[in-house]
């Protein structure tokens, strides 16, 4: 009996010892050592994949038509995550889905920065009585804001710089990305489903081309900027994060740098340092894009502003695109905006 007790104690100690060291290993794998390995330039760039895509730049007469086709093709479900949703045309389109009893899930920010319109509760009232539509905020996610802008159904997805507002579709400079890539779509759905219930998500669950704040976006952006060899082109609403600004100052001495930002007081420090040869403000149209192009090879598109809050606290989503033809299209649009910017 005594020997048996000692045997049990020894087995328990061994199990605890193994669990302890496995846990240490997992912590190391998910911490700094893992990040440094995962985002080392060779590992990171080797994992990226070509995703077939189409970008619709607004103003574009074709955009509402493409959105309507997407909604009409939805037969099983639709999932939407966005910061703002007030566009009457798109709200009507989702109501059409709900009338067909197609499940619709929406994650929407309910406490926006300097909120002047309670669109969360307005949307609740709008879909009142439509039981196939479910609406949640980001309280279960633990983020400052849900600022991401993506939508998916069983076949395809959108990632965009635009909120679902009238100005996004009719007056801002925005970019909209549409794809039927199955692997990226599945990864976005995994992200959405985790956010819906407040589950944690590892970067290992993400498609390598997806950039998601606060999981991996600061590491990805730093990796791309630091490894730029010939050029950095940025068109974004504003750039105010100190670490990103420091990288841009250093890289501006080594590579060609061109940045277009919105006409906003937030960008005064950037403009004071880089204007006019490396940074300009777009005056003719409100610049709400969030785009970075590295070496004319890697184009980032999505919701991320280059601010500390976006990078470290919000839910944000970007996608990295490699298609050279559409990168040329983006550069053409950037050049026109650069020439008209001040």
Share of helix among residues? 40-55%
Radius of gyration: 22 Å
List the total number of helices: 13
In terms of per-residue confidence, which ranges show pLDDT below 50 for 5 or more consecutive residues? 18-34
Order of helices and strands: HHHEHEHEHEEEHEHEHEHEHEEEEHEH
Main features:
seven-stranded mixed sheet; 342 residues; eight-stranded mixed sheet; alpha/beta
Describe this structure in words.
The chain is of the alpha/beta class. The protein has 13 helices and 15 strands. Helix 4 runs parallel beside helix 5 and helix 9 packs parallel to helix 10. The longest helix has 29 residues, at 2-30. The protein is globular. The termini are far apart.
Write the layout of secondary structure elements.
Layout: H1 2-30, H2 32-38, H3 41-47, E1 54-58, H4 63-72, E2 78-82, H5 88-99, E3 104-108, H6 119-126, E4 133-136, E5 150-153, E6 157-160, H7 166-170, E7 172-179, H8 182-197, E8 210-213, H9 217-226, E9 231-236, H10 242-251, E10 256-262, H11 268-274, E11 279-282, E12 286-287, E13 290-294, E14 298-302, H12 308-312, E15 316-321, H13 324-340
Parallel strand pairs: 2-3, 3-4, 7-12, 9-10, 10-11
Antiparallel strand pairs: 1-7, 2-5, 5-6, 6-7, 8-15, 9-13, 13-14, 14-15
Concise overview:
The protein has 342 residues and is α/β, with parallel strands linked by helices. It contains 13 helices and 15 strands. The strands form two sheets. Strands 1, 2, 3, 4, 5, 6, 7 and 12 form an eight-stranded mixed sheet that branches.
């Amino acid at each position: 009996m005594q020997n048996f007790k000692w045997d049990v104690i020894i087995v328990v100690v061994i199990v605890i010892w193994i669990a302890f060291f496995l846990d240490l290993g997992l912590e190391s794998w998910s911490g700094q050592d893992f990040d440094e390995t995962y985002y080392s330039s060779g590992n990171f760039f080797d994992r990226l994949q070509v995703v077939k895509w189409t970008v619709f730049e607004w103003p574009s007469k074709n955009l509402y038509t493409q959105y309507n086709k997407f909604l009409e093709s939805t037969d099983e479900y639709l999932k939407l995550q966005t910061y703002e949703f007030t566009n009457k045309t798109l709200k009507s389109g989702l109501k059409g889905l709900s009338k067909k009893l197609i499940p619709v899930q929406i994650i929407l920010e309910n406490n926006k920065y300097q909120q002047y319109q309670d669109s969360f509760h307005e949307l609740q009232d709008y879909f009142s009585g439509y039981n196939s539509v479910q609406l949640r905020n980001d309280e279960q996610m633990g983020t400052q804001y849900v600022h991401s802008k993506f939508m998916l159904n069983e076949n395809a997805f959108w990632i965009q710089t635009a909120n679902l507002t009238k100005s996004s579709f009719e007056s801002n400079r925005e970019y909209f990305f549409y794809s039927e890539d199955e692997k990226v779509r599945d990864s976005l759905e995994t992200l959405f489903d985790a956010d819906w219930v407040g589950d944690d998500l590892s970067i290992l669950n993400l498609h390598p081309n997806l950039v998601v704040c606060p999981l991996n976006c600061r590491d990805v952006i730093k990796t791309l900027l630091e490894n730029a060899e010939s050029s950095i082109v940025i068109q974004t609403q504003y750039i105010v994060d100190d670490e990103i600004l420091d990288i841009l100052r250093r890289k501006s001495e080594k590579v060609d740098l061109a940045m277009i930002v919105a006409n906003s007081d937030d960008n005064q420090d950037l403009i004071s340092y880089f204007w006019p040869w490396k940074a300009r403000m777009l005056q003719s149209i409100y610049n709400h894009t969030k785009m970075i192009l590295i070496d004319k090879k890697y184009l980032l598109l999505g919701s991320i502003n280059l601010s500390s809050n976006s990078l470290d606290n919000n839910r944000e989503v970007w996608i990295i695109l490699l298609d050279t033809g559409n990168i040329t299209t983006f550069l053409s649009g950037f050049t026109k905006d650069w020439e008209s910017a001040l």
